[in-house]
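Need tokens for this chain, all 312 residues.
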Amino acid sequence: MFWWRKEVKKDAPTILITGGLGFIFSHVTEYYVKKGWNVVVVDNLSEGSNPQIIDGSFKHINAHMAQLEVVERIIREEPDYIIHAAAITDVDYSIREPRRTFEKNIRGEIHAFEAARNLSKLKKIMYVSTDEIYGECEHPMREDEMLAPRSPYASSKAAGSLMRTAYENTYPTLSGRMAEIRPCNIFGPRQDSAKILARIKKSLHTGEPVPLHNDGLGYREFLYVKNMPSAVDLVLEKGDGIYNIGVGHGSTVAELIRKVESITGKKISTTPSHRSGMDLKYQTDTSRIHALGWTPAYSFEEGLREYFTLPE
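Here are the structure tokens for all 312 residues:
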């Protein structure tokens, strides 16, 4: 199934975004449409996608990145840039269904890199990873430090990080044309209600208790989703190698709930919960992306306040 963009602009670059209807990258899709680029989105409309943004301003290919035939479909589009963001990202789901998580995510990574390898005029491919591939962190992790993923989801993404290195090192056509971003926890409009801040927002409306994994002691860094498009664009334009994406703000989930209560003036109900193999602390050194020239438009507090005042 295809949704065709209104017209192809011959003087504008073409960017292909896998998972471009998902929570984070639907915002990136809209960003590049507004920028005037030709945008192609490969997205199979699975749970968490946002088909409501399909309006004829970009081309949508309804295909799954885990299927081999998607390689040829991408090659036929002859994109100047590729962003590979499509993945199963739910950690709890990955714990319940590790085989499917590994199978889908790793196949998708292979197919994205294979398409890139066969596009001689490709300017850059960006692989979207996660800060979770570092595993438990006792200090802010740099991009050149060891990967020690501990969940099936994180491990599947770390596999893609290693594959990206192998492809760039092995194939001359990809040398200097591959980049990787490792964002922290992203929150904002369109987020799946299984994620912590979306779940907190839902709880404010329904009164449904928020599961508090491991007493709410898990420490995470958070970034408002509206900061992501500018970071992605900068790395595509000027970046080389790997970039952690974040603003260095972190808190435990218990602290996060108290902050939201302070902003909204409402009490949030919680219930004890346990996540097997949960990492208590993720934190990254984001100096490299800031040195490249990235300045987020929203601080954590500004993003949080906007998010919790937006209608459902």
